[in-house]
Amino acid sequence: MASAHTADVLVASNRGPVSYEVHEDGSLRAKRGGGGLVSGLSAIGPDHNAVWVCATLGDGDREAVRRAGGGLLPAEETGGQRVRMLDIDAAVFTDAYNGIANSVLWFVHHMLYQTPLEPIFDAGFRRQWAAYEAYNQAFAEALAEEAADGAAVLIQDYHLALAPRMLRRLRPDLRIGHFSHTPWAPPDYFRLLPDDIAAELLSGILGADRAAFLTRRWADAFTDCCHAVLGPGIPSGTRIGVHGLGADADFLRERAHRTDVNERMAALRAEIGEGRRTIVRVDRTELSKNIVRGLLAYEQLLEDRPEWRERVVHLAFAYPSRQDLAVYRDYTAEVRRVAGEINSRYGTPGWTPVLLHVKDDFARSLAAYRLADVALVNPIRDGMNLVAKEVPVVSDEGCALVLSREAGAYEELGEDAVVVNPYDIGGTAEALHAALSMAAGERAERSKRLAAAATALPPAQWFLDQLGALER
Ligand code: G6P
């Protein structure tokens, strides 16, 4: 079993910094992830005894936990981090993750339901909710076991909304923070949830000393929900914080100039063709990212502004995500269908208007960032959207940013972006035209200011700020 009561800093999240695959010969391969939490935990230095608690997401992870005897994973596989992966029962995980977290909470906060058919809160939903409680309880218990006296615990996201209160009950001595990486729904939408569930979710997070969000807008929505659902609102013991996670400029600039990225740039240039402008998008194939409307806006641009035909290419990278859910599989198919339709309608022997890539390739994403004349970031709603922040940092010549006003990044980047209402396809087509037509000097100036705003709070500092704010 894991060493008990020794960690002074703890992070809890559904997806950990490492995942495992079982190969045919029975060997396990560990794959390390990146992101703000990984940089943050590396930044706190060796004086701390930090532990990251996460869930097993598949058979490879379960096998790794079995081989580690349920204790910490081998440090050489985790990039030196002390990781405790919880072997959550597969059926419980499916109900908690696919059922509640991704099909209910994600949908509520991104306002994705297509009423009147959805949502359905029936007996099946209640079973999934019980699994979500069990999943949160498993995290709370593991954290209570690992944490030293008075330790700081940073609990992440909508998967773990109940864990702060559960942990508080087990260990009143701990300093607990909760961070939401998603938007927070306004009260009228949040109250689609059954009243008892809405109250549980809010009280769960209010079990923390501090509840933090990516933007002021999401923090205010949370406060409004507390007033609407719980009446008295935020108890005096819980503080509300805002930390706008920024892009990691040092890492990105170094990584984007390595050989593999240069090779992919050459390949992409050959695909795009000489002298053409490039509109780039890079997303998980995620309903909230609004990829289909982005394609339709591009199509309308080609229709309304024929001068751009043959002169522009849309590089659309849409990496499959959450494919266990039928609605995501359908959406992935729809993205392919619409891209194919645009190509057959407008394409010519020497010009493919949309280059759709679906195989996740970080080096190729960076290559596209460097080549981008225009970045298209048009989510319906998004907690922050780091692509909007990363492209201006990496692009070689400076890029124009077409940005949805519903992305958290809008709060910091809105002034120098071409801002769109993500539902307005005609307006997005016009924004693409304006971005493509922007004079080179203005584009470079704006791109510089976007990059400066995007890197104001690098991931390591973002993490340290949260930790600092938990000091009593
Ligand atoms: C969002 C969430 C993260 C999550 C990520 C990927 O950014 O805020 O918590 O890790 O999506 O989603 P997935 O379901 O693949 O973990």
How would you describe what is shown here?
It comes from Streptomyces griseochromogenes. GO terms for molecular function: alpha,alpha-trehalose-phosphate synthase (UDP-forming) activity. Belongs to the glycosyltransferase 20 family. This is Trehalose 6-phosphate synthase. Helix content is 47%, strand content 17%. It is of the alpha/beta class and 472 residues long. The protein folds into two domains: 250 residues, 3-Layer(aba) Sandwich (Rossmann fold); 206 residues, Rossmann fold (3-Layer(aba) Sandwich). Strand 11, helix 13 and strand 12 form a beta-alpha-beta unit. Helix 12 crosses helix 17. The chain is globular and about 65 Å long. The two termini are 31 Å apart. The mean pLDDT is 96. The site of 6-O-phosphono-alpha-D-glucopyranose (G6P) has 7 residues, from loops. 6-O-phosphono-alpha-D-glucopyranose binds next to loops.
